[in-house]
Amino acid sequence: MSVTKPLPHDSAPLHVTGAARYVDDTPLPAGALHLAFGLSTIAHGEITGLDLDPVRAMPGVVAVLTAADLPFANDVSPSAHDEPLLADGTVHYVGQPVFLVVATSHLAARKAVRAAVVTYRELDALLTIDAALAADSRFEEGPRIYEKGDAAAAIAAGSHIIEDTFELGGQEHFYLEGQAALALPQEGGDMMVCSSTQHPTEIQHKVAEALGVPMHGVRVETRRMGGGFGGKESQGNALAVACAVAARLTGRACAMRYDRDDDMIITGKRHDFRITYKAGFNADGRITGVDFVHYTRCGWAQDLSLPVADRAMLHADNAYLLPAARIESHRLRTNTQSATAYRGFGGPQGMVGIERIMDHAAHVLGIDPVEIRQRNFYRPPQDSSSKKHLAKQEVTTDLQPNTTPYGMEVEDFELHDMTQTLLASSEYAARRVAVAEWNAANPILKKGLGFSPVKFGISFTLTHLNQAGALVHVYQDGSIHLNHGGTEMGQGLNQKVAQVAAARFGVQLEAVRITATDTAKVPNTSATAASSGSDLNGMAVKAACDTIRDRMAAYLAERHQVAPGSVVFQDGAVQVGAANYSFAEAAQAVYEGRVSLSATGFYKTPKIKWDRIKGQGRPFFYFAYGCALTEVVIDTLTGEYRILRADILHDAGASLNPALDIGQVEGGYVQGAGWLTSEELVWDDAGRLRTYAPSTYKIPACSDRPDVFNVALWDGQNREETIYRSKAVGEPPFMLGISAWLALSDAVSACGSAYPSLNAPATAEEVWHGVRRINDGI
Amino acid sequence: MSKIHVTTTINDDEVEFLCDPRESLLDVLRDRLSLTGAKEGCGTGDCGACTVTVDGRLVCACLMLGAEAEGKSIGTVEGIATDEELHPLQQKFIEYAALQCGICTPGILVAAKNLLERNPDPTETEVRYWLAGNLCRCTGYDKIIRAVMDTAAEMREAS
Ligand code: FES
Ligand code: FES
After folding, report:
1. Rg of chain A, C-alpha, whole Å
2. For the CA of A177, the nearest ligand
3. Given B102, B106, B109, which is nearest A490 (Cβ)?
4. What's the pTM value of the predicted model, to 2 decimals?
5. What distance in Å separates residue A694's CA from the closest CA in chain B?
6. 3-state helix, strand, coil in chain A (%, to 5)
7. Hey, is the C-beta of A645 within 8 angstroms of any chain B C-beta?
8. What is the pLDDT of residue A298?
9. How many CA atoms does the CB half-sphere of A773 hold within 13 Å?
10. Does residue B25 have its Cβ closer than 6 Å to ligand 1?
11. pLDDT of residue A776
């Protein structure tokens, strides 16, 4: 069967020959025009003068547009209608698009932009968490609060109380392909848009609003993205809308791509957080209660900040059964880029909070950091072999319901066994001793080990998004063509979905073809996000395939007077009683029998129910799990460090494709570790992002990969009925990177007696400061 | 502004083009010659997505002017496979799933092929540092390195 096979990405032969086409590789029709935005140079102010005549006079310029020139909606927000395409009198951050240049080449458009003369009346800019709090500048009326029990009393009842505050930086997506779109005017006022987006339906929606046409007048196609990571969930709207408006105005094809520096200056990033915590522990390392306050900089517009901040709250427990918890979340409005979706969607930030607490508590109580985590894990399901590890948990916990702070029962907790397996395969106990010996013997280079588990909730927390559609055609020669609502950004979604279709029809994978995601084929899709791509679209495709298969079986069964249920689709053949058809012959016969060989499929996730205001319900269909152990070495004189080894065990359920899934795990870990180590975003006092290119923003390179990198998938099945019992794997492994940050903390703590209290990212500079903080006497 | 006439060799074919004196080789390849295999990831020489060879040396095409190609021999990802066959590196990249979104792949293949031409038996560390200028945001690099190491081993055996 085609599912569970480790097959390469379906586009791999195109990728390696340079033939895979991304938006900017599309051959343009003659006369195509190119666009660039003129950007705000101040963080907050009113535009008092906008002299664009010098821009119009620049070579190659065809048109220059401002907000006043837009025929219909001036809005590219995915949520609150608070994000104009072009500034409408006020600018809210450095980098906000103010005007749009349409020119004969990309370079001409970019050059012309610089000729503009813009004057402003500057207003106070809120750049920091403190400034936004002081001004009470926020989204929603006040903080959201989720509670379980009486946290304050539970904390006070602990024999040890720990508290601290730390900063957790944001992250630039750095998809290697920058944002790009292309609009091609069609007859009758219709518009065709090719966009590098995770959310074609939203592009369609926003373009339709901007052109004042119904959604049926706009068709959006997405063949592939050169990386997305959440950064193309809403951030592509501006380019697509700009292209469509300019194409409507000029009647010519219009293309737009952001140069890397524009991309980094204009688009939103991962939300940065400040987390304040207070937790109570018993002497045996059992947590009694916890109180978190999350402060997050959402930037100037709402975008997806509310669900991101919600998801951070929903992951404040990570893998631990918290007897009592209070989580307070402030969504602050600042004059910076509008922070947006990024792999994990707030989950990583929430998780770092509780992992920090576990690390801190282990240090204070003198308990092994892995041991203290195991003692606080959720309980495994009743039927699980993990029961044997329960000896570690006290009887009292067994009496508490195994529920999250938001009242969801944890029914599929896999981490007891997974942790044991990883500790054994990574030889944790022996390496812990070896690290201690190394640190005792070496005054300058110190090593550290960090362990972190992941429990990540799968489903969109906005319940209605948990639906998907598909369109499948079987042609009379037996070849199969399908579309689904998901988009391909490198994760191999199309391959996984094709594997599902091939398995349903019992044919070779080569018989199945998936083409570009197209809003004219599958309507009303959700973003390919929340790791949901193969869960949702795989199921929708399965439904469509089964509809066609059942029709084929019914027709052929009648012809041969057998029961439809006895017809077997296998190995490229269809067995009907004694008769054996090739799949192509069967398709031909069914077609000649005047039976439809085309069907749509639909899926909606069952069981979920969520009230985000009360913070109660079952927001997730299931959880995906993973655990990682990272070893680092630091130079205490310079703060430099290297990741020496990473061992990972990740739960992809019954993996649909282990090659693709392991790729997600490896890439996720490295990206997560990058977030917490080298990737630092720096804004200056004027609100200008100073790290706007790879020269100043350091994502992991080939030379940064761990020297030893052992990645394995957990041999399990999803307990819920997902597509072939697999689990989503896009986001969860990202958080395995937290172990790298904890390993650095461990190494720093070898330099003194106090807790290092590292901020994130733990750049070489931060590690150096950490060493200085605790190295009594320096 | 008047255009410059350039005669050069690209993937062993003689090519002539006219370009603006300020136009980068990358823009010439992509916009004038429809060789879109080389990608722009940064435009500042920091990501390697635009990697090509110029007379056998690795160059970021975004940092070189098209006019400088005069008389040179340029190699791009489009020239790695023959009509009939993928290069062993290309085969291994597919086999190892050493790519996800694939947009870094052309630059990495050009760089890796160049390494193996200079050093058929590189150590893992040599591979890692040779490719350190080629960023990949998706894969975490592990499969890339293993694909290159394995190709090197296989090519040594074959020769
Ligand atoms: S585009 Fe040339 S190095 Fe990045
Ligand atoms: S595969 Fe996406 S950047 Fe390398």
Report:
1. 27
2. 2
3. B102
4. 0.97
5. 6
6. 35, 25, 40
7. no
8. 98
9. 16
10. no
11. 66
Residue A768 amino acid letter? W
Residue B7's CB is within 10 A of a number of other CB atoms, namely 12
Tell whether A225 is within 8 A of chain B (Cβ).
Answer: yes
pLDDT in tens, chain B (159 residues): 689 999 999 999 999 999 999 999 999 999 999 999 999 999 999 999 999 999 999 999 999 999 999 999 999 999 999 988 999 999 999 999 999 999 999 999 999 999 999 999 999 999 999 999 999 999 999 999 999 999 999 999 998
The whole-angstrom separation of Cα A182 and Cα A622 is 38
Give the H/E segment covering residue A550.
Answer: helix A533-560
Question: In this complex, do B99 and A16 lie within 8 Å of one another by their Cβ atoms?
Answer: yes
Residue B126 DSSP symbol: H
Torsions phi, psi for A725 (to 5 deg): 60, 30
Looking at residue A385, what is its pLDDT?
55
For residue A177 the two structure tokens come to: 């392909």
**What is the H or E stretch that residue A483 is in?**
strand A480-484
pLDDT at residue A394, as a whole number: 47
pLDDT of residue A395: 45
Choose the residue to mutate in B30, B60, B64, B77 for probing ligand 1, maximizing ligand atoms within 8 Å of C-beta: B60
- Count of other CB atoms within 10 angstroms of residue A159: 12
A229/B137 touch (CB, cutoff 8 Å), yes or no: yes
> A94-132 b/e with 16+ CB inside 10 Å = b?
bbbbbbbbbbebbbbbbbbbebbebebeeeebbbbbebb
Residue A321 has a pLDDT of 98
How many residues are present in chain A? 778
Partners of residue A729 in chain B, C-beta under 8 Å? none
**Tokens matching residue A285:** 């390392």
Report strand pairing: A218-222 vs A191-195: parallel
Position A387 scores a pLDDT of 47
Which 8-state DSSP code applies to residue A307?
H
CA distances from A676 to A134, A175, A277, A741, A761 (A): 28, 18, 19, 6, 4
Cβ pair A487, A225 in contact under 8 A: yes
Check pocket membership of A490 for ligand 2, CB cut-off 6 A: yes
Alpha carbons A300 and A318: distance in angstroms, whole number: 29
Cis peptide before A59 (omega within 30 of 0): no
Give residues with Cβ within 8 angstroms of A9, minimum separation 6: A15, A490, A492, A495, A660, B97, B99, B100, B102
Residues in chain A with pLDDT < 70? 1, 383-398, 776-778
Distance CA A197, CA A221 (A): 9
The alpha carbon of residue A299 and the mean position of all alpha carbons in its chain are separated, in whole angstroms, by: 19
What are A483-523's pLDDT values in tens digits?
Answer: 999 999 999 999 999 999 999 999 999 999 999 999 999 99
Distance from C-alpha of A622 to C-alpha of A104, rounded to nearest angstrom: 51
By the 10 Å C-beta count (0-12 exposed, 13-18 middle, 19+ buried), A453 is classed as buried
Q: Give tens-digit pLDDT for B120-137.
A: 999 999 999 999 999 999
Q: Give the sheet arrangement for strand A160-168, strand by strand.
A: A144-148, A325-333, A287-299, A272-281, A160-168
- Whether A245 and A101 have beta carbons less than 8 Å apart is answered as no
**Residue A286 corresponds to which tokens in the numbers above?**
């059992």
The residue type found at B44 is T
ipTM: 0.97
Q: State the Cα–Cα distance between residues A16 and A12, nearest whole angstrom.
A: 6
| Cα–Cα dist A371/A369, whole Å | 5
Domains defined for chain B, CATH in brackets: 4-79 (3.10.20.30), 88-158 (1.10.150.120)
Q: Which secondary structure element, helix H or strand E, spans residue A740, and what is its range? A: helix A738-749
Write out the DSSP string of A571-615: TTEEEETTEEEEHHHHHHHHHHTT---EEEEEEE--S-EEETTTT
